[in-house]
Write a structure and sequence with these properties.
Two copies of one chain form a homodimer. The first copy, chain A, has about 220 residues and is of the alpha+beta class. The first copy, chain A, has eight helices and eight strands; from the N terminus they run H-H-H-E-E-H-H-H-E-E-H-E-E-E-H-E. Chain A binds a DNA duplex (30 and 30 nucleotides) through helix 2 and helix 3.
DNA sequence: ATATTTTGTTAGTACAATCTAACTTGTTAG
DNA sequence: CTAACAAGTTAGATTGTACTAACAAAATAT
């Protein structure tokens, strides 16, 4: 059995790693507002249970099983948010706290029923994708930046695969998750793309970079 | 703050005492399937917190505050059951396990919304009354047996006030909570009532007894 | 390249909620 | 009325999840 507390750690790790495939003890500590030693020992425990790859002083990763567990919790969270908005008439900004609690309910029938009553939605009220009942996130909404066209306006959602070097490169360009990009031109020769975002001059991104950036078109 | 565990003890105590005003450590132990020493120390803790009257070797009682807390949890449970049946199309026998979990959700708005969507119901799908938002159980459905009429068919719901002697008397008559009674005659002189129930000859109950028995008419 | 800071780990403590074993009090049957 | 049994209590151990203090490793800045 997996406790509510453990579920919260898995979820935090999933969300933190969604971007770059790994996360640190420190990041989890900050996100959950729990001190680092507590996080550290919980990570060892989750490693024992087969949900996390743990090695001393190395960044943390979820195992495939850990990813699935986490995705299923996120599924419950997002289905709940959708249900609260669609069927109970809550505003989109009121539902998070309630969903944080209901996501821990153990009852497959309950969430299956919600899913059914909602007509099997694929995104929650905030546009985030809802994983399916096998924990697979159908990120249909996310596409690689190198598949976009001139004039598209997109939001940076994830980086896959990622490397330290790539993330450092993105930092120097002030490119972070959630940044909204406008595509100005695409160079036919090397497929490099010129984008603008924030209050800064346009930037040119090579195809090596654009092939790793997952974005969501603003539509 | 009151933990989920504490809530379960309060609810158990409320249900056990509803009938006779008090309950024993042993009864709670059996109902929750938790060993007596654990129950004992939890009762002391709840006493510290002002929810329970605890005295060594004496039966347990809820304080007014304890009753209110418990009733509010039961309110959440019964509202949830009603919601699951009415709005989510669950069968009446599928909802208990889910409600056991949802009753612990902390979100006044969530339950207020349920109440509203259900049109402010006063009983749950099993006919049990739903306490109001102040924790007051409007037991309008329960009436004293001495106010019934010939031909009425009723279910014994509670005994108030109760005494050891009265309960022993009821035991000798095989009268227990949930027993369905049919009223055959009422003696005008002393208002004693003749009833039948189960596979046994009719019994005569004195007005002293009938004035303490709370019943729900079967309608 | 080394000193400083940040991050990660270990060790030991605390508290909530559970247990078992042993003892005490209360109840009940001869 | 007392012996036996049931119920209640105390003491001490265990597990899960948190903490602080102290130390170790890694990253960073001068």
């Amino acid at each position: 059995m997996i406790s509510q507390t453990e579920e919260n750690y898995l979820k935090a790790l999933y969300n933190l790693t969604y971007l770059k495939g790994e996360a640190t003890v420190n990041e989890i500590s900050k996100r959950l507002d729990i001190k680092m030693p507590t996080v550290n020992s919980m990570m060892k425990k989750l490693s024992e249970k087969g949900f996390v790859h743990y090695e001393s002083y190395k960044p943390l990763k979820l195992t495939e099983e850990g990813k699935k567990e986490a995705a299923l919790i996120i599924r419950k969270h997002r289905l709940t948010e959708m249900y609260l908005v669609e069927k109970m008439d809550f505003a989109w900004d009121e539902v998070h706290q309630i969903a944080e609690q209901i996501e821990h309910i153990h009852s497959p029938e309950f969430f299956t029923k919600m899913d059914q009553l909602l007509g099997y939605p694929t995104v929650d009220p905030h546009g985030s994708p809802i994983p399916d009942h096998n924990g697979v996130m159908r990120s249909e909404n996310y596409i690689f930046l190198d598949t976009c066209e001139i004039g598209d306006v997109v939001t940076l959602m994830a980086v896959q695969p990622s490397s330290k070097e790539l993330l450092q490169y993105l930092n120097t360009k002030n490119l972070e998750l959630g940044t909204t990009l406008t595509i100005h031109s695409i160079e036919p020769f090397d497929r490099s793309i010129t984008v603008s975002y924030g209050n800064r001059p346009a930037e040119v991104l090579s195809s090596k970079v654009t092939a790793t950036l997952l974005v969501r078109p603003i539509s």
